[in-house]
Amino acid sequence: MAKRVSLSGNEAVAFGMKQINPDVVAAFPITPSTEVPQYFSQFVANGQVDTEFVPVESEHSAMSACLGAAAAGGRVMTATASAGLALMWEMLYVGASMRTPLVLAVTNRALSGPINIHNDHSDTMGARDSGWIQLYSESAQEAYDNLIQAVRIGEHKDVQLPVMVCYDGFITSHAVENLEMLEDADVKNFVGENRIAPYALLGKEPMSMGPLDLPNHYFEHKRLQAEAMKNAKNVILEVAAEYEKLSGRKYSFFEEYKMEDAEAAIVVINSTAGTAKYVVDNLRAQGKKVGLIKIRVFRPFPAEEIAKALKNVKAVAIMDKLDGFSASGGPLFNEVRSAMYGVADGKIVTSYIYGLGGRDVTSVNIEKVYSDLFSAIETGKYEVYNYLGVRE
Amino acid sequence: MPNLKELSAKKVRLTGGHRMCAGCGAPMVVNWVLKALKDEQKAVISNATGCLEVSTCLYPYTAWKDSWVHTAFENAAATGSGVEAAYRAMKRKGTLKDDYKFIAFGGDGGTYDIGLQSLSGAMERGHDLLYVCYDNGAYMNTGIQRSSATPMGADTTTSPAGKVKPGKQQYRKDLAEIMVSHHIPYVAQTVPVIPGTPYMFDLCNKAEKAFSIEGPKFMNVLTPCPRGWRIDTATELEVIKAAVDTCFWPLYEVENGVYKINYIPKEKKPITEWLKPQGRFKHLFKPENEHIIKMIQEEVDRRWEKLLYLAKVK
């Protein structure tokens, strides 16, 4: 039986970690992620978990210790945000290439500078090509559900990759929501017993990990890593199906909200989807054919599936909560537009950069995006690159 | 006290066939440290990026008989502490039966400089880890750039001896003392095994002692690099002897805060005996640089006197 609880996103993640009971958590505090290691260290202090908690002196060491622990064969988790993720950068790539499954909960926060503690997606979007699987979460419920599924996805024999579970700083990390938590035993059963990975530093045979890999082998290893990311697509769906049986909650690569006959759609990530769904409902009540796609899995990128989902719209606005500074739209925009090429051609496709550094995104902002889309459909005139909610 | 016959019969844990330069001191230091383990004892080794790392594990080969991990340059201690943490959790849960020792190896670049924070953190947290720095006094892997371990006056590729600046302008950082200030159970400074010296087994004794102590341990080993020091490989141990006899590199240990000097030369040799054989100090012997040698001598004397005081040697 599931339990109805009221928790903040950080609490939900910390409680999820407690239920998973990993071998090692190595973490360093950073706003707005700090509560996760804080709650978790209390579980350790109370003897409620078997985990070795390593209170490292930096995020670089947090990720290094996590990689060491995962290479040793343990089940490993950590949490961070923003500059913390940036300090881990070097080790993110190493972890993915070493094929060490571990789970990192990221409360999305703007990257410095200027320093800003509030939400946008500049941190994890910058890490999108580090080789990690990335799962995004609209709510505390989704952060919790993603966290539990992440263990299974990353540890799957065909994947063996680290996984980031991303949720919005403060908006999701600190706001208290009602959610359903699984029973401890169900989580334990779902993730399976922690056992020493068969090929590991503490495994049966001694093992060398992290060799120098020169041009005659490096490319093949990267090719295998790319294959693992491709394999992750099936595994993500398999794990989601199994999780649905347990929880009753359905997960896929993305959520389609009122997309069946939608003429104007937006593509969005994380908590803004909540505001956008409210707007969709209001506009639908007025008879407007609007819908939205909320990305859950950004890596691996479900290109074919997204293109298919956008096949029947007339116009789509793709919303990035970061500026990629490419002078041609954010990363989500570029990847979705690229996915559509040859599959969903002839559409109006626009980019909106919004909410940087925690700038509030209201229903009025989202209404404007839909109204821009309808105006584009009617007049054929529109701007491709847009900023939303900024003073200019 | 070990004897040579017994030590020679022990299992070699870093095999030949690796690609370190002829005469490199690092593999010799590694093997002497690992000989302090009992043959049946298991170990996991964490290695900072550097000469030792790139030359001993080139895919698909490894020279390491024990489990070995490398992740990056600045984090051998943090990576090792993660392995040790996983071990503790597994032992507690009963999923792992075997006992392991945990060792980290790094050069002076990976230890004194870019890895200092990671080392300090791991030592402070109290992991059961022996960190061994093979200190050859520069970033040798990238082509002999100065580190904070480089001795004053040395000509390196980033502290070149020029007309205005005759080599490195600063004295070396005293890392062993920084480790002592962490109040960890064991800190030692030593040199490779040099047959015929009274301190021939100093490294072996210290490694053995380190392995017998639970908790964080640090050993700093002066390690010859014939390329960087510009010396003949055949003379490298003589140069190391000079480092000990001039008290540039005192052999000492600090066990639970108590200092012990393991070798006090009967006659302290002038610093020129350490400087003279090395090409990297050649320019110091020009008349206009005499004052630098004097300064180096004064600093070596000052540090040696301080050590004598700390070790309560009258």
From TrEMBL, chain A:
<dbReference type="InterPro" id="IPR002880">
    <property type="entry name" value="Pyrv_Fd/Flavodoxin_OxRdtase_N"/>
</dbReference>
<feature type="domain" description="Pyruvate:ferredoxin oxidoreductase core">
    <location>
        <begin position="262"/>
        <end position="363"/>
    </location>
</feature>
<dbReference type="InterPro" id="IPR009014">
    <property type="entry name" value="Transketo_C/PFOR_II"/>
</dbReference>
<dbReference type="InterPro" id="IPR050722">
    <property type="entry name" value="Pyruvate:ferred/Flavod_OxRd"/>
</dbReference>
<dbReference type="Pfam" id="PF01855">
    <property type="entry name" value="POR_N"/>
</dbReference>
<dbReference type="InterPro" id="IPR029061">
    <property type="entry name" value="THDP-binding"/>
</dbReference>
<feature type="domain" description="Pyruvate flavodoxin/ferredoxin oxidoreductase pyrimidine binding">
    <location>
        <begin position="16"/>
        <end position="239"/>
    </location>
</feature>
<protein>
    <submittedName>
        <fullName>Pyruvate ferredoxin oxidoreductase alpha subunit</fullName>
    </submittedName>
</protein>
<dbReference type="GO" id="GO:0016903">
    <property type="term" value="F:oxidoreductase activity, acting on the aldehyde or oxo group of donors"/>
</dbReference>
<dbReference type="InterPro" id="IPR033412">
    <property type="entry name" value="PFOR_II"/>
</dbReference>
<dbReference type="Pfam" id="PF17147">
    <property type="entry name" value="PFOR_II"/>
</dbReference>
<dbReference type="GO" id="GO:0019752">
    <property type="term" value="P:carboxylic acid metabolic process"/>
</dbReference>
<comment type="similarity">
    <text>Belongs to the pyruvate:ferredoxin/flavodoxin oxidoreductase family.</text>
</comment>
<dbReference type="GO" id="GO:0006979">
    <property type="term" value="P:response to oxidative stress"/>
</dbReference>
<keyword id="KW-0560">Oxidoreductase</keyword>
<keyword id="KW-0670">Pyruvate</keyword>
TrEMBL record, chain B:
<dbReference type="GO" id="GO:0030976">
    <property type="term" value="F:thiamine pyrophosphate binding"/>
</dbReference>
<protein>
    <submittedName>
        <fullName>Pyruvate ferredoxin oxidoreductase beta subunit</fullName>
    </submittedName>
</protein>
<dbReference type="Pfam" id="PF02775">
    <property type="entry name" value="TPP_enzyme_C"/>
</dbReference>
<keyword id="KW-0670">Pyruvate</keyword>
<dbReference type="GO" id="GO:0016491">
    <property type="term" value="F:oxidoreductase activity"/>
</dbReference>
<feature type="domain" description="Thiamine pyrophosphate enzyme TPP-binding">
    <location>
        <begin position="49"/>
        <end position="220"/>
    </location>
</feature>
<keyword id="KW-0560">Oxidoreductase</keyword>
<dbReference type="InterPro" id="IPR051479">
    <property type="entry name" value="PorB-like"/>
</dbReference>
<dbReference type="InterPro" id="IPR011766">
    <property type="entry name" value="TPP_enzyme_TPP-bd"/>
</dbReference>
<dbReference type="InterPro" id="IPR029061">
    <property type="entry name" value="THDP-binding"/>
</dbReference>
